[in-house]
Every structure is written in C-alpha cells, then in structure tokens.
Design a protein that fits this description.
single chain; 329 residues; alpha/beta; 9-stranded parallel beta sheet; binds iron/sulfur cluster
C-alpha cells in the first residue's frame, strides 16, 4: 500500500508586511494594516497546537519587511527590537511546546539564515518559477536567480529544504519543466531538497489574479507526472489537499499532503479549509496515511536538522523516521 504523508502543524504569521507585491497575493498588507504577531498570540497558538497534538510550527512572513519604510514602528509596537531576534525567541518558545519550527521567511542573507538554522527542523522557499512574469513585476524578491542562489546557500549549509512551483501564474508548460529541472539540478548538486510543492494558483478577489483561471486538473496531473520524472525518487512531491482533490494527483506521483492543521487555517488561503483527518482517511482508502515531522526521515538520519531541534526530533520520530505517536484530531 502506498504511503501518503502529512504534517500536523500550526501556521504562525510573524508579519504580513512585505517588500513585494505579487499579483496573486492576499496575505501581504500595506504598512497601515500590517502587524507583527504578538508574543501572547503566538503563545496561544502554540498551546492550542500542542494540545491538539501538532508537531510543527510553520513560521511565515512577508519578505524583507525591514526594507519597508515604517517597519520599525510595527516592531516597536510589538515590543521587539530586531525581527531575527524575535523569530529566534518565538522558535525557542515553539520548541518548549513540543513544536518543531519550519521557517519560510522569504530571502534572508547568509548571516540570518545561519542564525535561524539551529532552531529549524527544516526551512523553505518556493522557487515558484524560473520565468520572469508579469505577476512578479513588482516583486524584486521573486527574481528567479536570487531564489536559486538562496536555495544554493541553504544547500551549502545543509538545511533540509522545501521548495515548489506555482501553477497558473502566467508561466508556460515549458517554464514549469525548466523550474523542475532547476530544482532537480540543485538537489543533484547539494542533496538538500526534501520535497517539492506543486501549488495551483488560487485566484484571490481584490488582487490582479481575481480573473485568472484555476489550473485545470489535467494540467496539474501533467505537472505532477513531469515532476515525478524529473526529480529524484527521494524528493517527495507535495500537493495541498485544501486547494485541489488529492486523489488524481496521488495516482500521478504525489506522495505528500503538506501541513494540515487542526488549529489554524491556511494562512495564505484562509477561505480554503483543511480537510479533517478522518475525511482524508475515508477519501484515501487504498493509501496508508502517515503523519511525519517537518523534517523527512532521510535528513534525520543525516543529522541535518537544526542542532536545537535534535532532542525533540528524537522524541517525536519513530524508528522509520515518521511520527511515532498517534494523535486524534
Ligand atoms: S512575497 Fe509572499 S507575502 Fe510578499 S507579496 Fe509575494 S506572495 Fe505575498
């Protein structure tokens, strides 16, 4: 029976201020509306997550918010003086609550990436695409070259890494193949890619993407099949079960459902509820649904997960490297 994995997580939106303006984003806020999550809000989520048996704290934020004029006011309103210090503080809090941090903070410089590494079981950054698209015309951080350089740096630092591509943002089929080939190349070179997300566009009202089309299922199936051919077998293909019916894509080669939360909504698409575990089990009869940690078993064996996460990983992982304990949603 084919195994399908997922991670039980909580989503922690550290800040929604972002220097980019991607054409499909409803997460980012302008300075007047942007916020930094407070310690008490983060703590409450972590307590709820721990109670619900989660094992991952997914830290997400807009990219390089410190380059947006006025960010210092948001920081000081949140009683923080430095965003990286604050991230470290929240990561330590997560570990104290039995939650393994996985941070996707957009592009970081090498010092900041090195700073975050010990506290993270794994880290992530979507490549999205190697193409230069209108959707990224106002997003300097979506320069494909910069993102590949960041992924290379993460590989050199031996950080277990999650990346992925977006489908339906104006890229061509060939662009998708090129993007997957670039990811495969990086993995062949550095060996750090644990999973690749095939993420369909979810057009958001009030954004330029509002009138764009959801990618069709046959397009997604072709993309997953191509990904399975291009990427080494050890790299999992992830699909988000709140955005797309997972069944056809699992039969095309996907094997992971990503983070699913019994506590928080999908912070990027909050209007798309997570399926409940029992619904998934019913839907995925014929597959063995297993919970995993935010770091894949191979990287636990290699010891690549952050040094401060080792003790917690050892207590959460079973002999096969997936999650040992079984909790009910
Ligand atoms: S980088 Fe992320 S948060 Fe910023 S605008 Fe783009 S999608 Fe939104």
């Amino acid at each position: 029976m084919k195994t399908v994995t997922y991670s039980k997580n909580i989503f922690i939106p550290v800040t929604d201020l972002c220097r980019n303006r991607c054409g499909y984003c409803s997460f980012r806020k302008d300075l007047e509306d942007a916020r930094l999550i407070s310690r008490s809000q983060a703590l409450r989520l972590m307590e709820e997550g721990a109670l619900a048996g989660c094992c991952e704290a997914l830290f997400t934020m807009g990219e390089m918010p410190w380059t947006v004029p006025g960010f210092s006011q948001i920081l000081s309103a949140g009683k923080a003086s430095d965003l990286m210090d604050y991230l470290v503080e929240l990561s330590e809090l997560a570990l104290e609550h039995g939650l393994l941090p996985h941070t996707n903070a957009g592009l970081l410089d090498e010092d900041d990436l090195r700073r975050m590494q010990p506290y993270n079981a794994s880290m992530g950054l979507m490549l999205e695409t190697t193409a230069r698209l209108e959707a990224h015309a106002h997003s300097p951080g979506k320069d494909p070259q910069l993102r590949q350089e960041y992924m290379t740096l993460a590989g050199r630092l031996r950080i277990p890494f999650t990346t992925g591509i977006l489908v339906g943002i104006g890229e061509s089929r060939q662009d998708r193949l090129d993007s997957l080939q670039r990811i495969a190349h990086l993995h062949h070179e550095l060996g750090h890619i644990q999973e690749v997300i095939i993420q369909p566009l979810d057009p958001k009202p009030g954004t330029p993407s509002a009138g764009w089309l959801h990618p069709a299922m046959d397009e997604l199936c072709q993309t997953v099949e191509a990904a399975r051919c291009i990427l080494p077998q050890e790299v999992a293909i992830q699909i988000p079960p709140n955005l797309v019916d997972p069944l056809p894509l699992l039969s095309c080669g996907a094997s992971d459902l990503g983070g699913i939360s019994p506590v928080t909504s999908d912070g990027i698409s909050p209007e798309r509820p997570w399926p409940r575990e029992e619904e998934l089990r019913e839907k995925l009869k014929g597959y063995s649904l297993r919970e995993r940690l935010p770091v894949y078993p191979r990287f636990i064996s290699l010891g690549w997960h952050g040094s401060r996460t080792h003790r917690l990983v050892a207590s959460l992982a079973g002999s096969d490297g997936l999650r040992a304990k079984k909790y009910i949603f």
